[in-house]
Automatic annotation (TrEMBL):
PROSITE patterns: PROKAR_LIPOPROTEIN
Phylogenetic placement of the source organism: Eukaryota, Viridiplantae, Streptophyta, Embryophyta, Tracheophyta
GO MF terms held by the record: cytokinin dehydrogenase activity; flavin adenine dinucleotide binding
Gene that encodes the chain: LOC102707095
Coiled-coil residue spans: none
Family to which this protein belongs: Belongs to the oxygen-dependent FAD-linked oxidoreductase family.
Keywords carried by this UniProt record: FAD, Flavoprotein, Oxidoreductase, Signal
Domain of life: Eukaryota
Cofactors named for this entry: FAD
Keyword Ligase appears in the UniProt entry: no
Protein name listed in UniProt: Cytokinin dehydrogenase 1 FAD/cytokinin binding domain-containing protein
Gene Ontology process terms (BP): cytokinin metabolic process
Amino acid sequence: MAGRCLIAFLITASCLSVSVSGQLPGDLFALGVASRLRKLGSILEQLTFEEGFVFTKDVTYVQFLDRVMEEERALRSIGTWDVPHPWLNLFVPRSRILDFDSGVLKGVFAGANPIGVILMYPMNRNMWDERMMAVAGNDDVFYVIGLLRSAVALGDVEHLERENEAVLAFCHNEGIGCKQYLPHYLSLDGWQHHFGAKWSRVTELKAMYDPHGILSSGQRIFSSSVLVALVAM
């Protein structure tokens, strides 16, 4: 991710693999745009990018929906699909994204060259229904950060998991205010902290629709004693 590095990325299964080495002018991001209309020219005019790094492809709507399958075929062809994937997905508030960049992308991951991708999607919070149980902080805009890395060599799983823990520790210590997507906590306190102000609503719905704890028991959000107390309320 740094200015002096080796970067390799696969655009799509049907495009060439592009490798860039040597001195780069800062960080390099791959920006993907999907449009039903032919307005890419006007969009690209607003961006600053390395000349020659534009790849376009016309596909049908069905092909667009099935694009992940093409990527799967490409990964299978090079043997990086059926391997462990210690992924970490986070919702990071816009107000702290630069701190996340300096502490994680330029800090924890400094010098790293893993197999995989880092995805960043800006999201408008007002497009999310507040009745949803997903939690994403209080900023009007937040980033969905997907650290989608693959363990392809001996010891990679442990190494990548340690890096994931270091990312979470940094965010906690610096008060980044990020939330995990599809988290796993071992204590009730952990789940309560994750849901924050929505915790009371979560417990209300659990007591109403699943008082016997049949659903999502593997997540261990509610113990038997907690369920009994909720139902009795």
